[in-house]
Known about the structure:
This protein is of the alpha+beta class. It has four helices and five strands, in the order E-H-H-E-E-E-E-H-H. Strands 1-5-4-2-3 form a five-stranded mixed beta sheet. The radius of gyration is 14 Å and the shape is globular. It binds zinc ion. Zinc ion binds at residues 14, 18, 62-64, 66, 87, 91-92. Residues 14, 18, 62-64, 66, 87, 91-92 line the site of zinc ion (ZN).
Amino acid sequence: MILTTHLSLLYIEPRNNPKLCEEIDRKFQWFKTIIEDGIKGTYIDESNMFVERSYYVGVHVCVCGAESATYDVLLPNRMITNTLAYHYLVYHTDEIPRADWDKLEQLKMYIDLNIIGDM
Ligand SMILES: [Zn+2]
């Protein structure tokens, strides 16, 4: 049996007030697009599974009041993220863990290698 392990990206809970980081906003427009184009569904933590076209009943609310959508997003490299991920990145830049920056770099490399022919 093959188990597919998903990597979760930017599941964080910021504590501080939001502050727009314009440099990150400019630099990560590609990430915004990738989230919008991702596959919608829900992530079931216990079984480490992503269920496509399923939705949560409620939303997640950031410390600053920003609300998530009712789904998570499966990215092209099989990482899973949430609809607040871009918000976290741009408005809570200082609170992004090192591991998530590394995963963003991996994602960008994957995209550059795999989608370059379509652009
Ligand atoms: Zn926020």
